[in-house]
Amino acid sequence: xxxxxxxxCSIVIADASGTGIxxxxxxxxxTIRRGDFQTPNSCDLRVYNLAxxxxxxxxxxxxxxxxxxxxxxxNYGQVFKGxxxxxxxxxxxxxxxYVDITAADGDAAYNFATISHSLASATPGTVAAALLSAMQxxxxxxxxxxxxxxxxxxRGRVYYGSVKEELxxxxxxxxxxxxxxxxxxxxxxKTAYVAxxxxxxxxxxxxxxxxxxxxxxINMRVLxxxxxxxxxxxxxxxxxxxxxxxxxxxxxxxxANLAPLNKTNADGLYYVMVAEHxxxxxxxxxYTDLTCLSIDATAPSLDQTNALVATDVPTxxxxx
Length: 320
Hints:
Blueprint: E1 7-14, E2 20-22, E3 28-35, E4 42-48, H1 52-58, E5 65-72, E6 75-91, E7 97-104, H2 107-112, E8 114-119, H3 124-135, E9 141-142, E10 157-162, H4 163-173, E11 176-181, E12 184-189, E13 200-201, E14 207-214, E15 217-223, E16 233-236, H5 252-258, E17 269-280, E18 286-296, E19 318-319
């Protein structure tokens, strides 16, 4: 992995055509929440000490989207792109004013996309294409998806109502999770991960403190890293502090439920379930907080047999 050195950041708010204002030279503080769940990714951005005219322009209806690119020289890329949903003017004190921007990725499609369509003996790939088509008027494109089964349904079916409800049923039926990532409809198998190289996470490549095993998975903090994407595998080269289970009687059932959910991996291979970026262009925070799940190298994958031959990552995995 490229050495994490010399911060780099670009923050642009723009209209529908992409024309806008570059705020990168000002102090900007942002928190970005991304996950493999269907709830839209979100961003809270605070920009300090804009000129009055610019602040009121930003708070108007002219600009509709925000794009944030961040990282370091040699490891720099987009960490968020979404639609502006709220703007707020305020002051921290007598000296510092700010504009707060709240944005979401694909929330219009998530909330308002509907479908009224019938398919006869459709394959899962055909159904996925139909659901994507119903979201395209909201700007949603096709993202990663696995090689779905080619078996068609015995009977035709009518798809009607909220697209997110149909997507939820479709994902469950095909053993996937679905989400919108950077405006793209994404399906990730529950027993696999997004094909590609697995970034190595170690103290020499940006790992901060010691990873912790928690009830929700393995938590890691690294220097802000745009190359870590939702649904991919990472290779952890560090010790994990293990979770302490309760000894009382009331904790035994919880212990049994947690044991298979937050396992560690002997080879350090983990699936990225949540990635939260936080940054301050004039302050200390410049981190990516990860919540990961252990990868079980014994379970076969449907479409990744040859994806990672050039790496030391197993080509067949299962997520626990």
